[in-house]
Design goal:
Layout: H1 2-23, H2 31-54, H3 61-65, H4 78-102, H5 106-123, H6 127-132, H7 134-160, H8 163-177, H9 181-197, H10 201-218, H11 221-226, H12 234-266, H13 268-277, H14 280-288, H15 291-299, H16 309-326, H17 334-340, H18 362-371, H19 374-390, E1 395-398, H20 422-431, E2 435-438
Parallel strand pairs: 1-2
Length: 439
Amino acid sequence: MKLVQNITLFLSILLCIGLIYISFFNVYQTDDYIYSYSTKTLGIVGNIQDFYMNWGGRYFGYTINMFTPLSKDPENILPKIYPVFLFFAFIGVSALNFKQYFKYSFFESLLKGLLLFFFYTVILINISEHYYWFTGSNVYFLPIVLSGFLLFFWGKFQETGKKLWFYPSLFLTVILMGSNEVLALILLGILAYFNTQNKSKEARILLIVGFIGFLFTFLAPGNFKRMPDLDEPFYKTWLRRIMFFGANTAYIFFKVFLILPLFIAIFNKELNKIKEKITLKKALIVWVISFLPLLFLAYITNIIGRPFENIVFFFLLSFTVVVMFRFEQIKKFWWISFIIIFLPKTNFLPKNYSNFNIDFNLNNLVKEILYTDLRSYDKEIENRVDTLKNSAQDSIVLDKIKTIPKVLYFGEMGSVNEPKGFVSDQLQKYFNKKYIRTK
């Protein structure tokens, strides 16, 4: 298995370089403008209150977005360096955990962190909204990095018993409960189960504080205002929810299963060490926790999309341990997974359900680097922003962006023949225009 690990490590390095290169052309988009506008209009405190009452309860995820320095960053520097910072933060905190829990050297831990980043990127449903959408990164990617720090600090506290490591764990629990609802459900499930295994005072404190943060997030008035008002018979609503749960679960299971042989082949040593320390029953319970957010998202009738990114990662990690107890030999088929992850995205579903197409992202990344003129895209966006910023007209009709990237996040506004969409609405508010459309 050493050969397959070395090949995958080489690909991990190339993947990281490619993602960094693409980052150089990233720009602010959509919600970045509305966060900047609403913070300037209402102030930080007023905007926090407005979001909580009218939009949702992500008291950390939304609040950090209110500090988006869009108006003070005319060169679009932050969107270009922030993804790179998060890439290295993910790899770095993964390395800390490999060193903490498997006692590897720093260099070996770093290599394992790179490999884990490779698989994390491969399983993402939408790279653009997860990595390159600035405000989206704060809600979905940054919390994953912070979860890694929580795991590390708690491990250090368990090892040393020093409160120095407990307090950061407590602080991160508060933050993560306010990052996004999916991660809050996963973390609450883990803390609840952990309390059945660990009767310490500190474990109870984490659970209590986590539960309070969970309630604060989920009971936000904005959540109830945004829930869909389904004017249909009771049985149709629940049939829809059951179908969504089934479809979302099937998609995640299938996508994870396709790369499972390669993942087990790469992390076989670590997975066997975990298997030695727990029972199959415990592994199953941890895996079942991944179904909590799937049930929640089905209840609010969400089909597969960016809120599911954190579930897929947790599902991969927990389900792999379960498989190790009965089907470890599946690793022999690593070469099938290796071929599959380079295949192009399937394209057999209509646009409304296109996220259910299977895509392991590598094919699109290669096409982006080789074929997309990212410099032209960056220049077109720059020219559009200059026009909006410097035009004295209240009504502006712009050329459509001609270079559309495959990986970078981009949302085009509606044309003059279409109703006002959210992109036009956000830009109109930010640039103080009455009408902005494309030709």
